[in-house]
Design a protein that fits this description.
- It is a single chain.
- With 362 residues, this protein is of the alpha+beta class.
- The protein is built from twelve helices and twelve strands.
- The protein folds into two domains: 149 residues, no CATH class; 186 residues, Alpha-Beta Complex (Transposase Inhibitor Protein From Tn5, Chain A, domain 1), CATH 3.90.350.10.
- Helix content is 40%, strand content 22%.
- A hairpin with a 2-residue loop joins strand 9 and strand 10.
- The C terminus is likely disordered.
Length: 362
């Protein structure tokens, strides 16, 4: 079981937990790559230990039930594993499903990164439907303790994440945002002193197909509005508001889609988070902690391997698999061969060991 102790030592640089808890974390990460689902029964069944499956299951349950730790301890791991630009784009969105009649509702703040977003801070809402302003503010305040405000190039979000109090918080916190709004919202065109619904805004500019960074007032806030008519296949216009003028607002907002790619990796195209039968919000937040470790490691290994052995392309030109899936397959292969050849696993571990991370207290 040398590989368990090796991975445990590596993770101990980031998570200052006792040996038993770190060992359980390592066993869960290994099992997660083996079964590719966060269903706790299957995770326990895949534990590489001599104990009975029932004992392994109880151990996993104790980890999520009795062990309390700071979720923001994931931040140094993420920030050291990925090389972000001096300025980053933050993305906020929700994903939800039901287990029986119980809604599972995850509010996720992530960092845009080369076509995908990286999970950074999250909250599981004890309700069904949209988040409230207090939920978002609490999430942002947690994130800003670990992520410098000066590194935020833009914060992007969809039409769900609007409101007078929410915009007031973002402006007071000096967070540059670019958020899509509904066409029914009323705005005041400051330059022309026109009060009208956002959906009628572009019509007042004649034949123009788009306008950029027009000063407006919305919900009492001085903002900039960028408007683009719907393109082929999308009848809905794109209406964006921001507290700073952006040179390319539509291109910047388009990056919001990266969080959808992240969700697909956590769900059906990756670790099948929807397979969990856990419904307690605090336990699901801890499950996301484990998933984030596995996701980040897999994606970076995928990048690393693709540099020396590029992913084959299909006949239509697209790659056969994503970088994330590429990394998952390589790590799974390394775990399966570990008893006959540990060199590949140690090679991947060397990649993690090269990180200069500081330990974070639980």
């Amino acid at each position: 079981m040398d590989h368990i102790s090796e991975l445990r030592t590596t993770l101990s640089h980031f998570f200052n937990w006792n040996k038993a808890r770190l060992t359980c974390l390592v066993l869960m990460v290994e099992a997660l790559f083996s079964v590719r689902t966060i269903n706790l029964t299957q995770i326990a069944a895949a534990f590489q230990t001599d104990c009975q499956e029932e004992s392994a299951y109880r151990r996993v349950c104790r980890f999520f039930t009795n062990f309390s730790f700071d979720l923001s301890a994931i931040a140094p791991f993420v920030l050291n594993l990925f090389t972000f630009n001096n300025k980053c784009i933050l993305i906020l969105d929700r994903t939800n499903w039901k287990w029986g009649k119980t809604p599972i509702n995850i509010l996720m703040l992530s960092i845009a990164y080369k076509g995908i977003s990286i999970p950074f801070c999250w909250s599981v809402l004890d309700l069904e439907g949209a988040s409230c302003t207090d939920d978002r503010i609490t999430l942002f305040q947690r994130a800003l303790r670990r992520f410098p405000r000066k590194k935020i190039e833009a914060f992007v979000a969809d039409r769900e994440f609007v409101g007078t109090a929410w915009f007031d918080y973002l402006i007071r916190a000096n967070i540059p945002f670019l958020i899509r709004v509904k066409k029914s919202y009323k705005i005041i065109d400051i330059q022309r002193d026109i009060n009208l619904p956002a959906g009628h805004f572009l019509k007042s500019y004649g034949r123009k197909k788009k306008v950029l960074n027009v000063p407006i007032t919305m919900w009492g806030h001085s903002l900039y509005l960028s408007f683009r008519k719907g393109t082929k296949g999308t009848k809905e216009p794109m209406i964006l508001v921001s507290n700073f003028p952006y040179k390319k607002p539509f291109e910047t907002y388009k990056i919001r889609w990266e969080i959808e790619t992240l969700f697909s990796c956590l769900k059906s195209r990756g670790f099948h988070i929807e397979d969990t039968h856990v419904t307690d919000p605090q336990k699901i937040e801890k499950i996301l902690f484990v998933l984030t470790i596995a996701f980040c490691w897999a994606y970076r290994i995928g990048q690393w391997k693709a540099e020396t052995k590029p992913i084959p392309q299909k006949t239509h030109g697209r790659k056969q698999k994503s970088l994330f899936r590429y990394g998952v397959d390589w790590i799974r292969r390394a775990f399966k061969r570990i008893h006959s050849d540990i060199s590949e696993f140690l090679h991947m571990l060397t990649f993690l060991n090269s990180l200069q991370g500081g330990a974070c207290d639980a």
